[in-house]
């Protein structure tokens, strides 16, 4: 089970990058029917949108190339801390540190903020296991830490990061590339129903090892949510499904 601080009122969340940097009570999603809100990824310093950013479709989903633009950690605190405090549900802050010093500094700054219930640590897909463990250790403190893993590295990193202090795990969108004009390739994150089998495999690997996991990836129907729970997910995070408006209603249980 999750640590006490990570027990959610309902086992359905939004994934990082799906609903912005702070909950919007007047937005299209009924926040009272989610167990927690996960912010867009936030880095220590500001990040601009990626050059050539855009969306490319493929059978079963789409590739999104964005660069994770954000105002930087200090600006995010100034702009959003009050909204986090007033939100009708707990808030988890998704951090993208470059090194342990950045992770430690951001973690300390978040401790004590009203209604911030935990940290989700975004890890590079190609990160060295020792570097990943160092970031987890740097983020340990008063707030529980969720390590967000690339699906293909769940088996390699799960047990190591649990021993390093991660309270739970979540899944980042898988990376891929597609051809575009002039014989070039565009790289980015993959979304869509075609990602479900890969995500289920990663959830199963983590859960079989006895690790608490928030399943994410390819979840578009109630049957997909059920499959995540069968695979061992204790909660499920929705990403692109949240952008479909009223179609979301069937995925969020009533209180």
Please, could you describe this protein's structure?
This protein has helices at residues 73-86, 100-110, 129-138, 154-164, 196-208, 222-231, and strands spanning 12-14, 37-38, 42-43, 54-58, 61-65, 91-96, 116-122, 145-149, 168-171, 175-179, 185-191, 213-216, 235-238. Strands 1, 2, 3, 6, 7, 8, 9, 12 and 13 form a nine-stranded parallel beta sheet that branches. The protein has one domain: Alpha-Beta Barrel (TIM Barrel), CATH 3.20.20. The protein is an alpha/beta fold. Helix 2 (100-110) packs parallel to helix 3 and helix 5 (196-208) runs parallel beside helix 6 (222-231). The mean pLDDT is 92. The chain is globular and about 50 Å long. Helix 6 (222-231) links the parallel strand 12 and strand 13 (235-238). It has six helices and 13 strands. Helices cover 27% and strands 23% of the residues.
The CATH top-level class label:
Alpha Beta
Q: What order do the SSEs take from the amino end to the carboxyl end, as H and E?
A: EEEEEHEHEHEHEEEHEHE
First-last Cα distance: 21 Å
Q: What percent strand? A: 15-25%
CATH architecture: Alpha-Beta Barrel
**Low-confidence segments:** none
Indicate how many domains the architecture comprises: 1
Radius of gyration: 17 Å
